[in-house]
Design a protein that fits this description.
The structure is a homodimer. Helices cover 23% and strands 35% of the residues of chain A. Chain A is α+β, with helices and mostly antiparallel strands. Chains A, B: It comes from Anaeromyxobacter dehalogenans (strain ATCC BAA-258 / DSM 21875 / 2CP-1).
């Protein structure tokens, strides 16, 4: 499986945003997850590839609160499922692309993930993901 | 079918961007389409829901060239497949959300589409889509 795993959208008010995406746009009831390590609450719509994830700061000291303050709400990143994350990271490094993770770190469901800085990916913050459920 | 139809990414150089997404990120060979009415060239990765579409100006007078000049490359919009576009648009209007299309217009493959201004959709430019192949 390769391609779009999910698109992450940054929102200030998770409950209001869920109402928009569920009640107005007709998406299914999302699963709500707290990620304490990143101080965010996430609403995940759907289970397979191509999910929409709404991400909101869990408190005023969340890094995401600072991002919203600086840039407002909006599209945040895309997560791409890649067949070989080490190979993709090596190719990016060879091009001089800045990586936010020098080595893959554990992601959800046993996956391995790494973020690529928008400067190395034509203006898009990209999360690479290999494996996992 | 409801949920994410595609995510559109604005790029200045389509061929270079295709190399990144295909050769580094491992996406399949895209289909390239010219859309003369919007003065863009589009690289479409995959056929089903959850596609990634790279959009580039077809010339210096393309509206997308101006957007890149102003904001740079990056995530542009998400297209959501909705069960009833008229109902979604009525709900948005009732909330005072600004719509870029007052009535749905013809989209690809016999669909009907309408754009919602980011101000009415928590910072995200949203394309609503109903029907089509």
């Amino acid at each position: 499986m390769t391609g779009l795993d999910h698109v992450a959208i940054l929102v200030s008010d998770l409950d209001a945003a869920v109402k928009l995406y569920r009640d107005v746009y007709g998406l299914p009831e999302p699963e709500i997850e707290e990620v304490p390590t990143e101080k965010v609450r996430v609403a995940i719509f759907g289970h397979g590839a191509g999910r929409i994830e709404l991400v909101s700061p869990a408190g005023p000291d969340s890094p995401m609160a600072k991002t919203i303050e600086k840039r407002g709400e909006g599209l945040h990143h895309v997560c791409l499922e890649v067949p070989d994350i080490a190979r993709a990271m090596a190719a990016l490094k060879a091009q001089g692309a800045p990586l936010l993770d020098e080595v893959p770190r554990p992601g959800a469901g046993g996956s391995r993930v790494a973020f690529v800085h928008p400067k190395g990916s034509r203006g898009v913050l990209v999360e690479l993901k290999e494996g996992g459920k």
